[in-house]
Write a structure and sequence with these properties.
- This protein has about 575 residues and is α/β, with parallel strands linked by helices.
- Among the domains are: about 150-205, no CATH class; about 285-465, 3-Layer(aba) Sandwich (Rossmann fold), CATH 3.40.50.
- It is built from 14 helices and 18 strands.
- Strands 6, 7, 8, 9, 10, 11 and 12 form a seven-stranded mixed beta sheet that branches.
- Helix 7 packs antiparallel against helix 8 and helix 7 (about 300-315) packs parallel to helix 12.
- The radius of gyration is 45 Å and the shape is extended.
- Mean pLDDT is about 75; it is low at about 50-70, about 125-155 and about 165-235.
Length: about 575
């Protein structure tokens, strides 16, 4: 009951407020507006004419009001389009500065650069080109290669007049046929000089009579005699060798291009690079370090077979080579503190060292190989690391991927790593990928007893290096589809095969430039092939390319882990090309 009374009273009070509120004044309006208007007086009238003030008076210019001051707003608007008249009181004559030439010469600013020609720099400038044939012009790759075969194009010397290139003496002179409008010159006949136009016979096409020959102030230069194999261009060769930092690699290798072009798909190519064995070449000196596993996981009998095979492999070393042997367990023991010359005395001492090693202890592969791959090779010479192990670490870094990734990253000097093992228990995954990612290869003898024979044969393929630090440029070909992506060193008797893909509508011509080091010499080779005319082979080329790509993907998995996109690529390779891997589901 009390609650209802309270509600009723509150409603009555609110109703009373609402009724009285419109009559309550909160702010009183200003009532003095009328009075304020009487305090000011405004008068609008036309402006007076400009008055002349006293000279120097404020607001005047020489006794005149400023000329820019308008009489009215309309005058200011009209004057905006008027041209500004010069001041009549301005100077009538230009101001003369006394001795201006002498003062400017004395205050000349020093030049930051000498504008005079540097004769020494001009002589060093690489501006002379012997001959470059149009059909072999490098449209995609800039190559520092100077000596090529004679062609219809040649730059003129400073004192030479232009003359059309003419056929060689042993070439037939083409006849002019209907539709031809080319001008042909026969070879210069010194005996007929002056008999007709410059001692040359001119043939014209059906375009009409020839124009009158121009009057020459000096006779045309005699062309060079025809070039034959018996008369090499020794002078040009010597100039090219002096001017270019590169020497030619043509005498080192031969190349064979094969293609497979399925209908409506991308094409595949296989380029085989064979170091030539028919040319007398001096092999490069090499540095070799043998890293031998002598841990307890290697039985003593297997270790003795390996030691005998390695002792025989030392015969492939030349006197100019250097070598060392590192035997490892959980610690390492070296034959010598550093690399030593491969003399007969050191070889004999190394064989005695190998005959005394014992199999014992744990296996720390990473610790043994790490300091070897970190050593700096001699400039321009190959540094080879031959790892002989079963690939099963027991102490230290034991994860296979960490070993491969760590040693590859630490091999910043790009030494070539070759791996050798024997028997059915070898960790092929580690051996293959460690070698693949470090420009080498792996070999595993199927039977332990075959190690003594196969180890020297394996190392004999590395006996004669001819080129190292090789890089390749494939022009417009996508390098991500070319395998291997790092070209290994060249050895006599050891071919290198490169696989890749190309788009037929975009890559009619294949161009590859190879550069490398041979001691203190830089060598290069440019290989060109018409992919439409290359030798056609079967589907096996596509499958070999897929196998090489799978190898590269597995190498990436060892570095980045089993990413879903990488595993998907392996499954796609298996479905399309039939390439099986250990990652197949």
């Amino acid at each position: 009951m009390l609650f209802l009374v309270s509600v009723a009273m509150a409603a009555m009070i609110y109703a009373a407020f609402f009724a009285v509120a419109p009559r309550v004044t909160l702010f009183r309006p200003m009532r003095t507006a009328d009075a304020l208007m009487d305090r000011f007086r405004i008068q609008i009238r036309d402006a007076d004419e400009p008055q002349t003030g006293a000279p120097g008076a404020p607001g005047t210019e020489g006794g005149r009001l400023p000329a820019s001051r308008p009489g009215a707003v309309s005058d200011l608007t009209a004057r905006g389009e008027e041209a500004v008249q010069p001041d009549a009181d301005g100077p009538e004559r230009p101001v003369e500065v006394p001795a201006i030439r002498r003062r400017v010469a004395a205050d000349a600013l020093p030049r930051e650069h000498d504008l005079r020609a540097d004769e020494n720099a001009l002589r060093k400038a690489d501006a002379r080109i012997l001959e470059i044939a149009q059909e072999t012009a490098r449209r995609e790759i800039q190559v520092a290669r100077r000596l090529v075969r004679p062609s219809p194009d040649r730059l003129l010397d400073t004192d030479e007049l232009p003359v059309l290139r003419m056929p060689r003496a042993d070439e037939p002179i083409p006849l002019v046929t209907e539709g031809d409008d080319a001008l042909l010159f026969r070879r210069w006949d010194a005996g007929r000089a002056g008999a007709d136009a410059g001692g040359a016979t001119v043939l014209w096409g059906p375009g009409g009579a020839p124009p009158q020959p121009a009057t020459l102030t000096q006779p045309l230069p005699l062309p060079e005699p025809p070039i034959t194999p018996d008369a090499p261009r020794a002078k040009e060769q010597e100039e090219a060798r002096q001017e270019s930092p590169y020497l030619f690699m043509d005498e080192l290798v031969t190349m064979q291009m094969d293609v497979y072009q399925p209908a409506g798909e991308a094409g595949y190519f296989r380029l085989r690079i064979d170091p030539r064995a028919d040319v007398a070449l001096s092999p490069l000196p090499k540095d070799v370090t043998f890293v031998v596993d002598a841990s307890g996981s290697i039985t003593q009998s297997k270790l003795m077979i390996t030691a005998r095979g390695l002792a025989a492999a030392l015969d492939a070393l030349r006197a100019e080579d250097r070598f060392n042997i590192v035997v490892f367990r959980d610690t390492t023991t070296s034959f010598q503190p550093d690399l030593v010359p491969a003399t007969a005395e050191y070889k004999e001492a190394a064989r005695a060292f190998l005959g005394e090693i014992q199999a014992r202890g744990e296996t720390d592969i990473y610790k043994a190989i790490l300091p070897v791959v970190q050593q700096t090779p001699r400039p321009g010479l190959p540094n080879i690391v031959v790892v002989i192990t079963d690939g099963h670490p027991t102490v230290g870094v034991r994860d296979t991927r960490l070993i491969i990734n760590g040693l590859t990253a630490d091999n910043a000097r790009r030494n070539s790593v070759f791996a050798f093992g024997g028997g059915p228990t070898v960790n092929r995954y580690m051996m293959d990928l460690l070698a693949y990612r470090n420009k080498g290869e792996a070999h595993v003898a199927a039977n332990v007893n075959e190690i003594e024979k196969e180890l020297p044969a394996f190392f004999s393929r590395l006996r004669d290096p001819i080129l190292t630090a090789i890089s390749a440029d494939f022009g417009r070909i996508d390098k991500s589809n070319v395998f291997p992506q790092e070209i290994p060193d060249f050895f006599l008797g050891r071919a290198v095969t490169v696989y890749g893909r190309f788009e037929p509508d975009q890559h009619a011509e294949f161009v590859m430039r190879l550069t490398g080091l041979a001691g203190d010499q830089r060598k290069e080779m440019v290989f060109r092939a018409d992919l439409r005319r290359a030798r056609s082979e079967g589907r096996e080329i596509a499958r070999e390319w897929a196998f090489q790509k799978a190898y590269a993907i597995i190498g990436q998995i060892s570095r980045d882990g089993e990413l879903p996109e990488l595993l998907t690529q392996l499954r796609e390779l298996k479905a399309k090309y039939g390439v099986s891997t250990s990652y197949d589901e």
